[in-house]
Amino acid sequence: MTAATFAAAAEAVTDLVRRIPPDAWDGPGLGDWELRSLVGHASRSFVTVSTYLRSPADRVDLTSAVDYVVRMRDYAADLGAADVAERGRQAGRDLGADPAAAIEALASDALADMAGAGDPVITVIGGLGIRLSDYLPTRTFELAVHGLDVARAAGVEIVLPRAVVEEAAVLATRVGVALGSGETALLALTGRTVLPPGFSVV
Fold first, then answer.
1. Which residues of the chain, if any, have pLDDT below 70?
2. Is the separation of the CB atoms in 129 and 122 below 8 Å?
């Protein structure tokens, strides 16, 4: 199901990007990013799958998607917001003159690279080893969340498959629990309270 859910998220996002109006690409995206940079950042969910599949690891350092997200949360904090933002801008520039075609090609490449790959241990950022099946839900999460971000910024509707939303929401909840915010999220989800300003699990 993990690979199938990732493929469903990839299809939803590539369809969304095809429908972005030409005059929206240089408009607002998210935070300091214009829309092109936001889409570029989302495209890294495809790029990293292909890249990491070519980088096998000889040990497992991260045993779940939750472990990965928590570790990368700390990594991003150490890296700094400016560096993360610039990576997104560079990824947007890398999409070239036809970003929709570029996104479609990157998604196709990632799915082709996954076909027949099995469940290898791959090397991710920081030189850490994780099984592909544990890494893919983090990419589905990124595609789901940033797909929604792109849709809102571009004024274009996206309908995420139920399995995609479920996998992303479950991962977000489990990360919240791992970070000690599970009770806060549970109370908000059941209408007992509202989330604090700026609350996030990423």
1. 1, 78-80
2. yes
